[in-house]
Amino acid sequence: MRTDSCWGFQSASRILGGPTVEHADPEANQLIELIEDFDLNSTLQPGTITYEEGERQSTIDLCLVTLGLVDRLIRSEVDREIDHDSDHLPVVTELDMSVIQLKKEIGRNWKALDEKVFDDMLRLELPSLQRPRTKATLDRYVREIVTAIQKAAEEATPIRRPSVKSRAGWNEECSKAVAEAKRLKRIYSRCHSEDTWEAYRVARNKKGRVIKKALRKGHQEKVEKASESPESL
Fold first, then answer.
1. Measuring CA to CA, how many Å separate 63 from each of 60, 90, 181, 200?
2. Where are the compositionally biased (Basic and acidic residues) regions (predicted)?
């Protein structure tokens, strides 16, 4: 079972804090790996100031969410109206936690269809050859054939197990972006050079954008489908 999370924390490492930080936090790479492993996405707009000390400003406080909450985000921003006695500005994150009940559709792994089982089951279920003479008998005959095909397919095709890649909206572009980010991450783990880090950073950011866009589109399509009629809810 997949659990979605919303994480808030502070970080002032050189990697996350920019070139003005004198010493890199030794746990910075662990944080980057954590973000990569859990596919976390920042809810704040790039460049959001979350820390002020005199004339000094920086983005120190972060709010990250897992993929399942990306399309649930209503707002995530600094709210100066909240009383606080700190140099860290209060960050308000609001999520849409309403639940839309959709009809559960069983997905099947069509690539694993057993052709022999399908053929045997189809021969067993197909109605005998007929020559319908009326529209009513023709319609009934067609329904019987369709039912036979469906039963044979269900018998010969295993049910697909849900995974993050089976989420609505996930596509081949998402899979390629994840694979490329992981590949460059392995290279950076071996070399630890500025070039390999930059290549990995660019791929990681692209992966986040690609997945966020795809899942948002998938969520919108599900909502539109659910709103078409009461039966879809």
1. 10, 11, 22, 21
2. 218-233
Q: In DSSP terms, which residues pair with 63 in a beta bridge? A: 8
CA proximity to 114, closest of 159, 151, 161, 155: 155
Q: Is 33 helix (H, G, I), strand (E, B) or coil?
A: helix
pLDDT on residue 233: 43
- Residue 217, classified by CB atoms within 10 Å of its CB into exposed (0-12), middle (13-18) or buried (19+), is middle
d(CA 28, CA 36): 13
pLDDT digits (tens, 9 = 90+) for 112-135: 899 999 999 999 999 999 999 999
- Distance (Å, whole) CA 162 – CA 155: 19
Amino acid occupying residue 39:
D
Q: What does the pLDDT look like over 65-94, one tens digit per residue?
A: 887 788 888 888 888 888 777 888 888 889
pLDDT digits (tens, 9 = 90+) for 131-182: 999 999 999 999 999 999 999 999 999 887 666 556 778 888 988 999 999 9
According to DSSP, the residues that pair with 77 across neighbouring strands are 92
